[in-house]
Here is the input.
Amino acid sequence: MSEIEKHTIIQINKADNVGIVAESNGLREGTMLKNGIVLKQDIPMGHKVALADIMPDDPVIKYGVIIGYAKISITKGEWVETSKIMLPSPPDLDSISLHSAKKHDSDPLEGYTFEGYRNRDGSVGTRNVLGISTSVQCVSGLAEHVARKIKHELLPKYPNVDDAVALNHTYGCGVAINAPAAIVPIRTIKNIAQNPNFGGEVLVIGLGCEKLRPERLVSDSNGESDIFYMQDERFQGFQEMVDGAMELAEAHLKKLNERKRETCPASELVVGMQCGGSDAFSGITANPAAGYAADLIVKAGGSVMFSEVTEVRDAVHLLVPRTNDPEVGKALIDSMKWYDEYLQQGQADRSANPTPGNVGGGLSNVVEKAMGSIAKSGTSTIVDVIGPGERIRKKGLTFAATPASDFICGTLQLAAGMNMHVFITGRGTPYGLSMVPVIKVGSNSKLSNRWYDLIDLDAGPIATGKKSIEEVGWELFHMMLDVASGKTQVASDRLGLHNDLVLFNPGPIT
Ligand code: CA
Here is the structure.
């Protein structure tokens, strides 16, 4: 690497008065940048350097937008630390025009396929998993016990089945089951069981006395005969319960074992985009590359979801014009309003995001984080907005309103019906789900190299100019097809690193 390249800082937009240090060890005080600016202090990787003198109350501009206002004067070459920036007010939700710019989406992308499991309802799975749903936390021990026993004793007999998974959660009793907000966790549990990777063969383990009646969790594809109650008086002791659950499970395994992969168009992919443990590179390398791949999926006729309300809130005025209909724009604004009120009730606001790790990675506040976060939505038209725990309804790009919390967002996207998860990280998280493959994209090579066996794709070379956003976007697109086909195993599956399902419960606990 030449000296000039080495000392290049990244200026995302020509209007920006800050640049980002790309050097993995940061840059030292006294370093002269290519543009002649001399650093006034040491600046760590991912952090911002002032490209111009910034007076108190002057805007700090990155991504071409105001990410904050200077609290004190910042001179050219200084580190623009978080403590020097004031958080601006969020966009006023009542003054955003609902005018939808009818964007002409570019030519369709044809000829891309993957090997998936086609279901009776038309959806396509990327894995073949027996899901054991539960109506209440009380039964989670039995569900885990049965899932383990199935893996050891039954799966060898049914080689086409990949896994047996207990869909445990903390809901089901001790809650105000009829409170309006209870619909969120209830539909989430029900819809998770409808995820395409379970092939409509889910059984439900209930206790018997819980508030959430297991009958509320079955749907057209399964019936009340798929419900198993621990308190069923036929059972004398635990062993008989285990045997009963195993018998019910085996009936489903027989059907799942008949599922075979077949060639399906890329339009059957339902991709959930998420980021977690973000740093300043997330928004310039991995998220834009993921956005490029999202555009490819949409052009191929597939479905993409992006989420994380608190990371969209400060960019919502940029997203509403991308909706295809004023109703969709209104739904997007309403989802922000709902969350503003939800946070207010808890005496919090959007400044509760970012995390200390985000700040350590160079992200000063939620505005800066949001501008990087929405890059993973690509440039397609937003065709729908769904509430937390609802199922996706349309092909194309959907905003699925969820909290930004990694486990909750993932759980809700699972309920929405994703069959492929893309997860972007800059600080590093071992995030994984046992129900759906999670492709982890590293935003910087320092992390991707250190976590060589935990990260699936390194978007870091974009920062050094060795690869373009388009190149990494195509790599991710091809990786999605290979992973969906079962040809490539993601790191979290290879290592068995899987997170728990975590429900979003905005309702009262009793
Ligand atoms: Ca997240």
Observations:
- The chain has three domains: 1-89, 116-256, 268-495.
- Residues 274-276, 308, 404, 406, 409 surround calcium ion (CB under 6 Å).
- Residues 268-495 form one domain.
- The mean pLDDT is 94.
